[in-house]
Description:
The chain is of the alpha/beta class and 719 residues long. β40 (504-509) and β41 (512-517) form a beta hairpin.
Amino acid sequence: MFTGKLPECFNMLSSLKFFDISSNQFIGTLPPSLIANLTSLEYVDFSHNKFEGSFSFSSFSNLKNLEVVGFISDNDKFEVETEEPRGWNPMFQLKGLALSNCNINMHKGSVVPSFLLHQHRLKKLDMSHNSMEGDIPTWLMKNNTMLEFLSLMNNSFGGVFSKPFYRNPNTRWLDMSGNLMKGAISKDIQKFLPSIIRLNLSGNYLEGPIPSLIGDLSELEILDLSQNRFSGEVPLGLFTNLTRLEVLKLSNNIFHGEVLSGNLSFKLRLSILHLDSNYFSGKIGDLDDKRSILSGPSLLDISNNFFTGSIPGWISNMSYESELVVRNNRLGGQFPCGTNSFTFLDISQNHFSGSIPSCLVSESLKHLHLGSNAFTGSIPNSFCNLTNILTLDIGNNRLFGRIPKFLGELSNIRILLLGKNEFSGNIPKQLCQLTNVSLLDLSSNFLSGSIPGCLQNINRPSYQAFTDVDHFSGPSSSYSYRNPRNSWFSMIDHPYEVSGLQDEVLFTTKTLSYAYKGNVLDIMSGLDLSCNKLIGYIPEELGLLTRIHVLNLSHNMLTGPIPVNFSSLANIESLDLSFNSLSGNIPQELIKLNTLAIFNVSYNNLSGRLPEMKAQFSTFNKESYKGNPLLCGPPLENQCTIQSLMIQPTNEERSHEKWYNMDMASFYGSFGSTWFVFILGFIALLCVNPYWKRRWLDFVEECMYTCYYFVCDLVWKPL
C-alpha cells in the first residue's frame, strides 16, 4: 500500500538487479532518468500501480542485462511509447515482457513495438488489452522460437487466420481473443502448434468448420472458440481424442447437428463444456460408461439451442456439486432426481411439467431458475431449506395456492420471481423481511388484499451483499501456468480466466420484458405487483424505495391518491399506475423525478391540472393520461378552466367505466346504511299510525294463511 511518487533516488542504485514495486499505490509519471542509470538491472516490474502519463520504453535501451519487464496498468491514463527516438536499437534480449492495458503507441497509430523485431529469446509475451492495429504479427513466433506464452487479446488485429503462424513446437499458450481476425482455422493446425495447451480464439470473425485434425492436438487442455461465426458439425475427436481437455467453449456460433446424441464419452478431465447459443438439436444421450460419471463436466451449458427429449438421469447422479444450464430449449417431461447437489441450475424456458421436484433443494444451491415451463402444484415445503439461495425464479408456470410465508426467511435472496402463475390470497408480510431483494415480481396472479406498507424494507442490501460478485455470476475457473523454479516470470504468469455462468432473468421494464444478466443485476432493482386484485390505497411507505428503478402497480383495484412522496423515488425509470381507480390530482412534486422515462396513469379517476411540462414530464404524451376525462392541461387537449377543475363525471362517462373501477367498499356501505334507515323509518311509521299498523298486521296474517293452504294442498292432494 505504498503511495506517492516513486523517489528518483532509486536511480543511484547502479548495482540493482531486481526491481519490483508491483501491486502498490504509486502515482505520477515515471521519469526516464529513473531507469537509465540502473545498468545492472535484469528484472523490473511496475505493474498494478496508479501511474499516469507517457513512458518511453527506449529508457531501457542501454540495459544490456535486462531480461524481464512488466507494465500491467490498472487504469487508462498510462501510455507506453516505443517508437521514439526513431531507429533506437535495444542492447537487451528479453525473455519476458508484459505490456498489458498500456495504450501502446496510442499517439503513434497504435502500432506493434518495432523493437520486438530485434528480440529473439522471448519466452513469454503479453500485450493484451491495448488498441494495437494492423495485421497479425506472425513474425513474433518466427523470431522467437522459444516463445511459450503469447497473449494479444483485446486488440484490433485483423487479417486472415488460415495460416497465421510459423511452426513453433514450444508454444503452450496462445490467446488471440477479442480481435478482428477473419477466415478459417487451418486444416493442419496441429503442424503449427503441436504442443499447444491453451488456445483462445474467441471474440473474432472466424468462420467455417472446425478441422477434424484439431483432435490431434494431444496436449490441449483449454479450447475457446466462442463468439465467432464457425459453422458445420463439431468433430467427434473433440470429445474422444483430446484426453487432456478440461475446458471446451463453442458458445455463440452457428454450429448444428446432434452433438450430444447417442452414447457419450467424457474422457478423463473434461470439466467445463459450453455449447450454448448455437443450433444444436437432438436428444441428450446416455453415457457409454457409467463410471465416467465421475469425470463428467461439472459445468454444462447447452442453453439457447434446439435440444429435445428429457434430461438423462446421469446428469443428476454425478458425485459432486455441479452447474447446469439448459435454458431455452425444447426439453420436457419431469426433471430427474439424483444424488447430485447443484450450485447453479437453470432449466427455464422449456416444457418441463409436473410438480417441482423436492430433490432439487440443497444447501449448496445458489441460483435456481425454473421459470417459463409447465410446472403445476404449490411451492414445495422443502424450499424452506434453500438457506443460501440468491436467485429463485419460478415465474410463468401453473403454480397455485398461497405464497408460503417461509420465503421471507430466505434472508440471502436477491431475486424472487413468482409472476405469471395462479397464486392467490394476500401478499405475506413476511416478504418484507427480504431486505436484500432487488427484483421482486408477483405480477399476473390472483393476489388480493392491500399492499403491505412494510415492502419499503426490501431493496436495502448491505454493502457486503452488493460487493459479493458471486451473487450474479457463477464461479470462474482459473488455470495458472507457472514455473515454480523461476519466479522471475511470475509477473506475466496470470491465470487463464474461463468465465463462469452468468445469472440471467426476465423482468418487465418500460412495458417490455428484458433479459438482465451478469453485473447489470448488481444495480437493477424493481417491484412488480401488476395484474392482480389488490385493493386499498397505495402505501405512502413505498416512496421510501429510493434505490428502485421500476415500480409497476397497474391493473389492480387500487383507490385513493397518488402518494406525494413518490417524488423521493430518485432512481425511478418506469412508474406504471394505470388501470386502477386512483383519484385526486397528479402530484406536482413528481417533476423532480429526473430519471423517469416511462410514466403511465391511464384509465383511473384522476382529475385536475397535469404537472408542468418540465424535465422528464415534457417527454410524456397524452397516452400516459388517457382514460381520465377530468385531467386537463398540456399535452391533453382539455384546457384547464374553473369549470373543468370543479366538474364531476357525467352519467354517460360513468356508464363507460369498467366494473372494477367502482369502490366496492363504499358501495356495500351505502347499500347497507340505506336499508337500515328504510327499516327504521318503516317501524317508526307503524308505531305512530294505528291505521297503517292494523293494515300491516292484516297483510301479514293474510300471507300466513295463503302459505298455509298452499303447503296443505301440496301435501294432502296426492293422498
